[in-house]
């Protein structure tokens, strides 16, 4: 009997200081997207009222280095960090981070000192950034080995899964170079698949599929092949070709003429061989599907393609 009583007293003397005087709770980990504002949660509970703010001290550490402290005011050398001093009296010591950087990722420690008690709790902060896809080549040559390439960029963390598809079926032999680091800490990678395009592939839908930890649903970009036919007449010969000029003279009726010129251009646009100077404009319109270019974020769309065709139509008329 006496022994049991002694044991209970012993147990209480171990439990009570840690269990009831000051408790600090944090989640095991916290996640936020790059560039957003976030708050790493930390709550504390003091079990001996009344609360005296002069006894309270809060420290935040990143990878064991002090980054912020709070007594009656917040002190930090990083302008993006703060804690809401108005909330501390409600037991909140959460760390606010504005404009999250990749370098903010790491092991945080929320340390609450309420004289004479002190509790430290660790929370790991993960930053993530979703990938973006830019198709960098979909120009192919019929019956010749042709590489489809895409740049997958601005993602974090590094691990990423890429697949190339034709009509929803995985193409074998897709490769991915090792990811390169950008200045802001995000990654970019180039992926390629080599195919030998057949006539049947002309109207088929190709896709690149990307899975990444930041995405709840995989990212997919669809496109069609753009055939570069080496045997077709090039632009120079096309413009001066005699049958074409004759066609203009014979079909003088206005709407009929318009129609025939335009449809001729559409079919030709697929087989047009660009010169070096054309390279830039070509890369802007070659992708059928609308997509965002990486640098400028400028939107390309089909109306631009038709403008391109119209421009060529004007040239060719004379
Ligand atoms: C609190 O933070 C400031 C600024 O980072 C620092 O100068 C000061 O030494 C810190 N105070 C304590 C008690 O750690
Ligand atoms: C993020 O925090 C900064 C600094 O506190 C503030 O100026 C900005 O408006 C916040 N942005 C958003 C989207 O809340
Ligand atoms: C591709 O589509 C065009 C028009 O959409 C059609 O005229 C042509 O026959 C199709 N070609 C093949 C190989 O399916
Ligand atoms: C394009 O046409 C010009 C003029 O006929 C010719 O000299 C040139 O070799 C042609 N280029 C190609 C790639 O066929
Ligand atoms: C295409 O872009 C032009 C301006 O660049 C815009 O006015 C037009 O609404 C866009 N069309 C579509 C279908 O997005």
Automatic annotation (TrEMBL):
Entry keyword set: Immunoglobulin domain, Signal
- Annotated region (Disordered) at 272-318
Q: Name one Pfam family in it.
A: C1-set
Highest rank taxon of the organism: Eukaryota
Tell whether Signal is among the UniProt keywords: yes
State if Signal is listed as a keyword.
yes
Domain named Ig-like is located at: 17-112, 131-224
Question: What range does the record give for the signal peptide?
Answer: 1-20
Tell me which SUPFAM superfamilies the record gives: Immunoglobulin
Q: What is this protein called?
A: Signal-regulatory protein beta-1-like
Give me the gene this protein comes from: LOC116407618
